[in-house]
Amino acid sequence: MSLETKIMDQMKEAMKAKDSVALEALRAIKSAIILAKTEAGATDVLTEDQEIKMLQRLVKMRKDSAEIFTKQNRPDLAEPELAQIAVIEKFLPAQLSEEEVEAIISKIIGETGANGIASMGKVMGLATSQIGGQAEGKVISGIVKKLLA
Asked: Out of the domains of life, which is the source (predicted)?
């Protein structure tokens, strides 16, 4: 079942349950899917990798917004953002723990023989392709820096 079909089914459920927060998050995902499909040169079908990146971008936007609202002492605005994150994350693959990410990156460094921060680009490329949507780029980058330093 495609992501778009799952989203439509969940939207129907959210409408029936009168869950406005979930409905808003699902509509944002649907909107992002439509935008991705209509971009110049895009095909009618999104790959799983494209879907994951799009969902991660939506989560990141909401995390950033929630952080700003929290800093401005506006919990009334931060709470809906955090609730939407929970809805969007249901469609993402299970996230790896930092220990699991560190183990994968250590293996990559061992296989490539990378040493020093100069090899960071090569390690990041391999790590990002292997770990994919199972960890945020920020986490991967931080671990790579720590292990190569």
From this structure: Bacteria
